[in-house]
Amino acid sequence: MTKHHFDTRLLHQEDFRDKQTGAVNVPLHYSSTFHQESIDEFGPYDYSRSGNPTRHALENTIAELENGEQGFAFASGMAAISSAFMLLSAGDHVLVSKDVYGGTFRVITEVLTQFDIEHTFIDMTDLDETARSVKPNTKVIYVETPSNPCLNITDIEGVAKVAKANGCLTFVDNTFMTPLLQKPLDLGADLVLHSATKFLSGHSDVVAGLAVTKNKEIGKRLKFVQNSFGSILGVQDCWLLLRGMKTLSVRLNQSSQTARDIAQYLHHHPIIEEVYYPGFSFHAGYPIHQRQSAGAGAVLSFRLPSKDCARVFVDQLKIPVFAVSLGAVESILSYPATMSHSAMPPAERAKRGITDGLLRLSVGLENADDLLEDIKQALAAVEQHAPAAQV
Ligand SMILES: *Cc1c(COP(=O)(O)O)cnc(C)c1O
């Protein structure tokens, strides 16, 4: 059978129709344990940490959508990322994009170091620097593209080639794009990671993480880690995530369209110093992003002249929620310096362009004109306050 389009596959997966009852939604299997027929005859499930039918449906679904073979659901994005790092051993080394998610930075610098797993942060948009930075004990190259919060673009295929040439694995955090817009496994990555808390679930009501691979050996080892370490996603959250994912394509396409309008508007506004948005043809990573992704997504960041300006903007803006997180039906404005990247020391933040005037906007499903009007009036207030606040 030919594969249907992505938006159709979001709605029709084999696991969605309950074989026993015909129910069109995956049943909630609230069972920690499963009855076995005899002492030497076991069914497909024994204990829910090792496997649960509701979780299994979710794991199969994300595996299918990422063009992978095996999917894994974890209690959070960080649980997925940390579990993936458990494929490493003491003495191994990881190469990491310098502007990774703050929580990933924290686990690499403060947890993995406890187990003698070394790291180097590099500018992964530079493939030469990436190749030069590989050490004899490098086992994983860890990519986040577009990166957070400055939306830098890394060439996934290029990095995967460097990794393969050096016998390392490529891990890609695909949270910002989702498989709707970017499929890292098709580009040579070995493992895809998600904070499913964001666009995949989409409603700010679940914390969840996912991982997908098509490499049987990695799949086997990650399954072992998932069962041993045990940071699995609970049944109810699996179900909520399965429901959220059905509308991924309409949500993300609509939000991306509005994000484009907002990025254009901000780009032309005199008080905005810089807009970070991978859909601009003058964005340094634009050609690579165009090649490896099907869209610019719904997240953009922009820089106001100072912290005071950012404060006025945040105080004046009415519609977006002011919060950490992203990828939801409601627009979410955040202040990376004290929110997503608070785990990063100020000097490290400065190196990554996370200045005190930087704001990140994850565009939701509100009416685009309402959002633009809201931004317009908040910027007018900033302009009024700016001269005094700035100097
Ligand atoms: C939120 C986020 C994470 C962490 O996921 P949680 O679900 O919050 O644990 C990892 N990577 C990126 C890019 C994120 O945005």
UniProtKB/TrEMBL annotation:
Keywords: Amino-acid biosynthesis, Lyase, Methionine biosynthesis, Pyridoxal phosphate. GO terms for biological process: methionine biosynthetic process; transsulfuration. It comes from the Bacteria. Its cofactor is pyridoxal 5'-phosphate. Its EC number is 4.4.1.13. SUPFAM superfamilies: PLP-dependent transferases. The modification N6-(pyridoxal phosphate)lysine is found at residue 198. One of its GO terms (molecular function) is cysteine-S-conjugate beta-lyase activity. Pfam families: Cys_Met_Meta_PP. The keyword Glycoprotein does not apply. InterPro entries: Cys/Met-Metab_PyrdxlP-dep_enz, Cys_met_metab_PP, PyrdxlP-dep_Trfase, PyrdxlP-dep_Trfase_major, PyrdxlP-dep_Trfase_small. GO terms for cellular component: cytoplasm. It is an enzyme of class 4 (lyase). Belongs to the trans-sulfuration enzymes family. This is cysteine-S-conjugate beta-lyase. It comes from Jeotgalibacillus campisalis.
